Every structure is written in C-alpha cells, then in structure tokens.
Amino acid sequence: MESIRNLFAQSGQDEYFGEPITQLEHALQCALLAEQSGADDDTIAAAFLHDIGHLLPPELAGDYMDGYGTVDHEKLGADYLRERGFSEKVAQLIENHVNAKRYLVFKNPNYFARLSEASLKTLEFQGGPMTAGEAAAFETNPYFKGILLLRTWDEQAKIPQLPTPDMEYYMAICRRSAGY
C-alpha cells in the first residue's frame, strides 16, 4: 500500500490529461461514484486505482501518448496491482476500462459524440473502435457489466472542486480489497 500512496504523492497533483482536475481528484471522484452506486470493495478499489498506470515512474511506464498519458496504462496498472495482491476482479476491471471505451464507440455512435477531446485523442493510441469480432469476444468477459460501469464513472469523474472523501478513506478500502 505504501508504494501506491507514494505514486499518488509523487504524481497525484499532476493534471488529468486535458481535463480541469488532477489525477488524484479523478481517482477520488471515480471511487466516490462507484461507492454511491453500491459497488463492493473490489469495484471501489478498481475505480480508485483504474489509472494507476499513468502514475508509474518512466522506467516502468514505457511509451507515452503525446501528452495524454502512458500507452497501455490499463495493462501496466493491472499488472502492478496483481503483483501487490489485488484480486483478478480488480485487475480485470482496470485492464479493460480502455476496452470498454473502444467497445462503446463501436456499439454506440452517440457515445463517440460525447467523448472529450482528450478521450478522442487517446482513442487513437488505444486502437480505435473495436471490430465486431473484438466486441463479441469482449462481451464474454465475466466482469463485462462491471467494466462498463467503471467506464461510465471514468467519464463522469471530471468535475472541478467536487467534494470527496480523502485518499486515506479509499486507501482503507483498497487495503480491505487486497486482504491487508
């Protein structure tokens, strides 16, 4: 847990790419939305940590998306959390939140029209809309519904100055989720 806390201490105040909030504010808002929906600890932890891959140091991160974060941040973050004892559910929700965007763009033209400029830019780096075959395969993921919910919260969690519980509140949920 200390390594996660340190990542937020080092990079949590960085701008959330192209949005008027910080990385930490985005994480806190996403977790709050999950909690308000009645989600379990694993889902709240995944909501809080879904972008942890953006906070990893350069030697772990690899390539960047022209100022819009880390390429494959979802996979890097999921693997980072698996190594720290988080459940496969947490990892799958995080690892697939970008796939959810690609899926929703494929399935729903109205969703594409609502994406922010930053989300449109990152979509290019993330493979664009899914193909019909990719979408059919994605729908079979056992966490499919939870992944789509996480994506919804991710899109909504961009409100400047929104009051939320503090980081320690969600770190306690993460500790429970990881069995610490």
Report on the architecture of this protein:
Residues 24-102 form the HD domain. This is HD domain-containing protein. By secondary structure, the chain is an all-alpha fold. It has 13 helices and no strands. Helix 6 packs antiparallel against helix 7 and helix 8 (97-107) packs across helix 11 (132-138). The longest helix has 14 residues, at 23-36. The radius of gyration is 15 Å and the shape is globular.
Q: How would you summarize what this structure contains?
A:
This protein is mostly helical and 180 residues long. Helix content is 65%, strand content 0%. It is globular and about 40 Å long.
Q: Shape, please?
A: globular
What is the overall number of helices?
13
Rg over C-alpha atoms, rounded to the nearest angstrom: 15 Å
Helix content: 55-70%
User: In terms of per-residue confidence, which ranges show pLDDT below 50 for 5 or more consecutive residues?
Assistant: none
Order of helices and strands: HHHHHHHHHHHHH
Structural class: mainly alpha
- β-strand percent reads under 5%
Outline the biggest β-sheet.
Answer: none
Question: How many β strands by DSSP?
Answer: 0
> End-to-end distance, in Å?
9 Å
- Please state the average pLDDT score: 90
Helix and strand arrangement:
Blueprint: H1 2-11, H2 23-36, H3 41-49, H4 52-55, H5 58-61, H6 73-82, H7 88-95, H8 97-107, H9 109-114, H10 117-125, H11 132-138, H12 144-156, H13 167-178
List keywords for this structure.
single chain, about 180 residues, mainly alpha, about 65% helix, about 0% strand, globular, Phosphonate_degrad-assoc, HD domain-containing protein
